Amino acid sequence: IQDGKIVALRENKQHPDATLPHYDAGGKLMLPTTRDMHIHLDKTFYGGPWRSLNRPAGTTIQDMIKLEQKMLPELQPYTQERAEKLIDLLQSKGTTIARSHCNIEPVSGLKNLQNLQAVLARRQTGFECEIVAFPQHGLLLSKSESLMREAMQAGAHYVGGLDPTSVDGAMEKSLDTMFQIALDYDKGVDIHLHETTPAGVAAINYMVETVEKTPQLKGKLTISHAFALATLNEQQVDKLAHRMVAQQISIASTVPIGTLHMPLKQLHDKGVKVMTGTDSVIDHWSPYGLGDMLEKANLYAQLYIRPNEQNLSRSLFLATGDVLPLNEKGEHVWPKAQDDASFVLVDASCSAEAVARISPRTATFHKGQLVWGSVAG
Question: Could you list the residue range(s) of the whole structural domain that residue 262 is in?
C-alpha cells in the first residue's frame, strides 16, 4: 500500500522487502469497505441519552415537520459532537464512504451544513462523505429555494427534494424547481420520495421524463425510498427500469420491511444501480438504525434470494456499492493494483458467511489508514 492505493498484490510471505511495515490480519476475511448512501448525520439523538417519541397512530409527515421545527433548536448545539459519534459508529461497521442528507430550511438556515462540513473536514482522512442539501420542510412549502441555492454555493454536492405532492402540493413546480437548482449549479439530485399514492408513481415518471429530455441530468439523479415502486406490477417495473438504466438513474433504499415490498432485486437484475443506507440511526423519525451495511445486505438476502452460497455472496453488492471480490464467473476482480486501499477485516470465512451471519468486523482501513479497530503489526 502506498499513497492510499494498493500498488501490488503478492503471495503471503513473498514480499521482496521484509523490512517494510506490515500487518498480520490473523486469517480474517478482507472485504471492500461498505457505503452508507442515505444517512442523516446532522440531526440525531445518537451519542446523547436514550429517547423514544410517542408518535400517535395517524401521524402525518406534516405533523412530523411541525415537531421537527420545534426540536431542531434543541439538537443544534450537539450537531458536531453527535455527527462525530455517528461516523465512529459507521467506521466500526466497516463503512468509510457515505452520502448524508443535511437539513436546509428556515429553522436551521445553513447552520447544520456548516457544522457537518466542519466535522467532515476533520474526519476526511478516514471518511469521505457527499452532502445532499435537504429541504426537509418542503422546498416550496417552507420557501427554501434561496437557502438551497446558498447551500449549493457553500459546497453541498446534491440538491435534495421531498414529496412534491403530499408536502409541496404542486408536483411539477416542486420538481422543476429542484432540477433547475441542480442545472444552475451543475449538481446532482437526490430526492426523498415517500409517496405511495398514484402521485408517487407520477412523480417518478415525471423525473425520468425530465432526465430523458435534459442530457445534463443523465447519471445525476438518485431517488431515495421510492416507495411508489412497490405499487407497480412486474411489467410496469421492468418498463421503468429499462428507462432508468438508459438515464443512469439510481435508487437508494433502506430495504424496508413491512407491508411494502420494494422490487429491489428486480431493479438490480435489470441493471438499475441500487444503493442502501441507514437513514435514521436514532432520532424523532426512527430508533432502529444500526449504521451497519452488512446488516442491510443480510436483510436484502432474507427478503429477495434463496440462501445458497452464490446468492448470499452476491448480495454483498448492496453494502459495497457493487464492489465484489469475485465476478459472476468466480474470477478475482478485487482487490487489484491501483484500487484504493479501503477495506474491512471480517471474522468470517467468505462473503456468503459475512452476509448470512452479519459477522463481526475487527478493523477498518480507508485509503491505507487504519481508521477503526486493531490488527497485529
Answer: 34-291
pLDDT tens, position by position, 155-200? 999 999 999 999 999 999 999 999 999 999 999 999 999 999 999 9
Structure confidence at residue 34 as a pLDDT band (50, 70, 90): very high
Task: Give me the helix-helix angle, 234-246 and 198-213, nearest 10°.
Answer: 30
Written as nine digits, the cell of 57 is 397512530
Query: What CATH number has the domain bearing residue 132?
Result: 3.20.20.140
For the chain, helix (H) and strand (E) counts, in that order, are 12, 12
Q: Is residue 356 part of a domain?
A: no
Cα–Cα–Cα angle for 332, 335, 340, rounded to 5 degrees: 155
Q: Is the peptide bond before 135 cis (omega within 30 degrees of 0)?
A: no
Q: How many residues appear in the chain?
A: 377
Give tens-digit pLDDT for 340-359: 999 999 999 999 999 999 99
Which residues 6+ apart lie within 8 Å of 337 measured at CB?
6, 7, 8, 9
Residue 18 domain-assigned (yes or no): no
Integer Cα distance of 102 and 76 in angstroms: 12
The pLDDT value recorded for residue 53 is 84
Residue in the block written with cell 442545472? 183
**What are φ and ψ of residue 215, in 5° steps?**
-55, -30
Residue 12 exposed, middle or buried by CB count within 10 Å (0-12, 13-18, 19+): exposed
> Are 326 and 352 in contact, with CB atoms under 8 Å apart?
no
- Residues 43-61 have pLDDT tens digits of 999 999 999 887 888 888 8
Residue 103, domain member (yes or no): yes
How many angstroms separate the CA atoms of 169 and 180, rounded? Answer: 18
The pLDDT, as a whole number, for residue 11 is 79
Confirm if 316 and 351 have CB atoms less than 8 A apart: yes
CA distance 227 to 214: 25
H helices of 285-331, in order, are 293-304, 309-314, 317-320
The rounded distance, in Å, linking the Cα atoms of 82 and 281 is: 11
- Round the average pLDDT of the chain to a whole number and report it: 96
| The three cell numbers locating residue 78 | 450537539
Task: Specify the number of domains making up the chain.
Answer: 1
Q: Would residue 363 count as lying in a domain?
A: no
DSSP 30: E
